[in-house]
Amino acid sequence: MNPRVVAGASAVVLALAGALTSSFEGRSHTVYMDRLPALAIPTVCDGHTGPDVVIGKVYTDAECDALRQQDLLAANAIVRRCVDREMPPKVEAAVTDFTLNVGAGRAGKGADRGKDGFCVLRSGKPSTMRVLANAGDWAGVCRQFMAWTTSNGVEYGGLIKRRRKEQALCESGL
Fold it and tell me: Is the pLDDT of residue 36 over 70?
């Protein structure tokens, strides 16, 4: 495939995913602790977390834009690593925002309980969304978003709203 076409599609995917991400994460120029009690990790800008978050620093819009782009690129790289076929741009954008929110996942047992994510579940199996994406079942992928509305067994209204928006973006690309 022509690299310019792929690069152009990636720009569209990142723009669509970025708009969705920003609408749900909101922007905070100062560090806060993530609202989900089990996560309590330093977060800044549009939901950015990681070792580069500096508590006490006031981030500029330009810094927040750069962090959001970095996070979207990382999430999209995960999606592209775990899906072995080209995706319709709006489906890929919805899955990219989803992956930015839930992560790739990690198998684990016992003390390392693992973490369910787009690529792998804590059981070590691939997520249904990933399996459907690799099969090219885009409508099936879109139906999977509403299965991901809980965190640590608690359903959150914000996650329900976000998954509905992701599903709507996904379905608009079919």
Answer: no
